[in-house]
Amino acid sequence: IGILHQEKIQLLVLEGANVDIILGRPWLVKHDPILSWGTGEIIKWGKGCVTDCFPEIPRPVQKPLPVFTTSVESPIEKRSVQIPKIYSSYKDVFCPKRASQLPPHRPWDCAIDLVPDAPMPRGKIYPLSLPETKAMEEYIHEALSQGYIRPSTSPAASSFFFVAKKDGGLRPCIDYRIINQGTIKFRYPLPLVPAALEQLRSARIFTKLDLRSAYNLVRIREGDEWKTAFVTPTGHYEYLVMPYGLVNAPSVFQNFIHEVLREFLHKFVVVYIDDILIYSRSEAEHHHHVAEVLQRLRDHQLYLKAEKCSFHLSSVQFLGYIIDQQGVRMDERKVSAVVSWPEPTTIKELQKFLGFSNFYRRFIHSYSNITAPLTTLLRGKPKTLLWTPEAAAAFQSLKSAFTQAPLLTHPDPDLPFVVEVDASTTGVGAILSQHHGDPPLLHPCAYFSRKLNPAERNYDIGNRELLAIKLALEEWRHWLEGAKFPFQVITDHKNLQYLRNAKRLCPRQARWSLFFSRFQFSITYRPGPKNIRADALSRMHDHPETSETPVNIIPEHIIINPIEWSAPPVVATPEPRPPPGCPPGRQFVPRTQRIALIHSTHTSLGTGHPGANNTLTLLSERFWWPAMARDVRQYVQGCKECAMSKSPRHLPAGKLHPLPVPNRPWSHLGVDFMTDLPSSDGNTCILVIIDRFSKFCRLIPLKGLPTALETAEILFNHVFRYYGIPEDIVSDRGPQFISRVWRSFFRLLGVTISLSSGYHPQTNGQTERKIQEVGRFLRTFCHGHQDSWNQFLGWAEYAQNSLRQPTTGLTPFQCVLGFQPPLFPWNGEPSEVPAVDYWFRESERVWDAAHHHLQRAVRRSKSIADQRRIQGPAYAPGQKVWLSTRDIRLRLPSRKLSPRFVGPFTILEQVNPVTFKLQLPPQYRIHPTFHVSLLKPFHPPLIPSTEPGHEEEPPPPLLLEDGSIYSVKEILQSRCCGGQLQYLVDWEGYGPEERSWVPRADILDPTLLEDFHTSHPEFPAPRGRGRPPRRQ
Questions:
Q1: What are the CA-CA distances from residue 723 to residues 668, 698, 757, 810, 813 (Å)?
Q2: Element spanning 359, H or E
Q3: CATH number of the domain located at residue range(s) 67-313 in this protein
Q4: How far apart are CA 49 and CA 56, in angstroms?
Q5: pTM score, two decimals?
Q6: In angstroms, what is the C-alpha Rg of the chain?
């Protein structure tokens, strides 16, 4: 009777009967089945059948297959496992001995990448009982013999302990919590269970395979084994295979098994970690599918646990569900567990029950409404459980609903769908159905329900019904969007039939309407009494306490004292007849007066230049016009006062753009000066030179800051003659490094000069970091006698070059010299000198390893840095931007009250993805190249600067090289006064009343002088132009 239901009964033989068996009323009373009278099928069995009539494992199809016997070793017993004879050629795939061998390295090895400065576990050794000690010794001995673990000297040491299995055995566990906290997460997705089940439609025969010691089939990436180390009372060990407990283990294994079986996925294979389900439409097809999978597993040295494999089933238990040709149902053993679940007495027990039942919510009518009294008990994270009569009733109702859950049919894309929705004051519900059978009857494919939040409970009934449709379409979008046939939405709210033809929609409905336009469906009205199925999802099990008054979303104290301001007289008189769409109680503003109203509201002393949202809120209290939010946003974006005065609140712009990774030592250098040191043996500064490949540094003491030519000679004498001429040198924009001598010197040598962008020293970050480390060393050893730092400088250089670099995994000495010099003199016997070719091969190997580690470190640094940054705006040459004043000295008394940005300035070119060159006035005397984080877009103001009350403020002067710099707009006249040439100038940003005479030396822009004297040859000019100045 069915595939799962089995029993033995005594029957009487009747002659002349035209049916096989007749079951009377006593049988029906005993089993209490739920029948479908339309199809003549049994949908659900009674409670007693769960424990009396269902076997532990689903039986195979009625036609048995030939089998062969293989023996599976177990610590307790030996038992035979039957495998179909047709697969006898794959007997090695089920071999336990081969499965216990150390697997090979593959591209999918488990990597354990740690964040910088990740803490190391210092494991505690737990005391073990005698049985645990024996189990531990057996486990360590077996793992060592298999090659799964090895003795370790790792700095990491996670704890080792046991937990009990369901069968009373002991499972070894390792506490990897600290390692997991510092591990960079691998986000490979696990399959969605509902989506996986939907692949099984039209399948008739199934085979389920289980991998033996699944995680142990994957190796730990070479070099990462030390991170898996653990301690036991008998020693310190580390894994060579992937152990259980690592945070990335499920994602790594899912990625691995997906790559192995990729060409079979979504065709006839579903994989969830180590569970493999093969499904087919016919037996012959199934034989071929299973053979293909077994061959693929053999090719990749993956082995199966025969005792947990099931072949050629017409009904299979997979991922907690029972699946057959008809559809998906709940596992009866899980149902039995829910039915016998005792009433919770603690918060933890209630959470455990809800978590267990939530797994099957897609089978339960009105799940969210049924559980509402239970979830209410968890609000506010209480410490004790206050069990109520309503909660007790909901608990029993949920258990009853589990025993009545229907069979869910597989969705068929070749049939039209029907979506039934309904909404109540507490929740929404929906049913996805299709017509099956002859005559066609509506069968459910899935249920959906959700509680309404406080804001949604304030919706009127029409918007709640509309919300139910929106949530249902979102839940089943993968089936309904782009469906082969238009689907039908059934609701008991008649007005929704006219939604698509409505001429006026509220903003919420307009937003939802855009979402609905992606689907092809029609809305059908069905009165509430006839819409019983969906109505049950939203109204069934309503409880008195859920009927509550509308919730005030905005706290009262926020709206007690609204800010008031005076409206301009032009909008003080309301329009005689407001246009359609104007909300009641708000005044319509004509198009010609909108900008003036925004301006008066935004710039008022009572409002203080608020942001776009706050400006819109102030206006919306009394006024309205179409596209009001867009106009306010555009105005605030173009407000110059806001652009110059407000600091950005977003993350710094510009993703990390790391320097290229060198291929050999001393090909790419970084240089900088360490200054402001006390005199030591006559030296007051240090030239720091670092090799960006090996991190090898040279520290050269100097009497004072050298000139550009002296700096070049120092580099040649201390670096180039030993290590060769480099390809690139990175430096800041110090005077030595931007001079013409420096550029000419290295241009002749063929060396590229790279300068950091303006006010962004991170470009030369390696040298800046090395200066910090050297300063820390000198402070440590000579803080009491600061004039003795020169004596320790050599040791500082030796110490820096002896330290292992996390980016390369080697010390600078090892990268450059090929070996690590000892800290103390070597006292052993001299060893044989290695061959020269061996030295070169070893050096090349060291360089390759260092290059590999450098590239990995750069990728990791970029990934971490980009988590604290956002993508910079897409700037283009010709676009105007504001420039941050963060690193510019302004001629203003207080930095806190100074503008945050100046400009706008035009972009001339994009130097690299995160650096731009600006067109600055010549008198600014700062380098025009800036990092994108120091820029922000310029938006033209909506109100021209010539309007009254909106005069543009003069720009603040720059303080550069201890002098005030003002921008000259135009030279008007020249004269000689006291033998000195003077010019009458018009200042940028100031009126005619501010014109003044200034000396020739104060005019810094030669272009202005050239243009003036060319246009006005009659005025006095400098002597260099061929004639003496004339007196006026």
A1: 11, 12, 28, 19, 13
A2: none
A3: 3.10.10.10
A4: 13
A5: 0.42
A6: 40
CB 305, CB 74: distance < 8 Å: no
User: How crowded is residue 754: how many other Cβ atoms within 10 Å of its Cβ?
Assistant: 16
Please check whether residue 589 is in contact with residue 623, taking contact to mean a CB–CB distance below 8 angstroms.
yes
Q: Where are the domains of the chain?
A: 67-313, 332-546, 586-637, 668-824+835-854, 880-950, 966-1025
Rounded-to-integer distance, Cα 618 and Cα 586, Å: 12
Reported as a pLDDT band with limits 50, 70 and 90, residue 564 is very low
Where residue 241 falls among pLDDT bands split at 50, 70, 90? Answer: very high
CB-facing half-sphere around the CA of 120: CA atoms within 13 A? 10
DSSP string, 927-991: -SEEEGGGEEE----SS-TTSTT-PPPPPPPEEETTEEE--EEEEEEEEEETTEEEEEEEETT--
Topology classification of domain 332-546 = Nucleotidyltransferase; domain 5 (3.30.420)
Provide CATH code, domain 966-1025.
2.40.50.40
Do 332-546 and 668-824+835-854 agree at the fold level? yes
CA distances from 671 to 394, 656, 693, 711, 737 (A): 73, 21, 14, 10, 10
Is the previous residue joined to 172 through a cis bond, with omega within 30 degrees of 0? Answer: no
DSSP string, 125-177: -----HHHHHHHHHHHHHHHHHTSEEE---S-BEEEEEEE-TTS-EEEEEE-H
**Contacts of range 915-918, beta carbons closer than 8 Å, 24 or more positions apart:** 915/657, 915/757, 915/760, 916/875, 916/881, 918/881, 918/883
Range among 125-139, 165-179, 365-379 with highest mean pLDDT value? 125-139
User: Would you identify the CATH topology of the domain 880-950?
Assistant: SH3 type barrels. (2.30.30)
pLDDT for res 607: 72
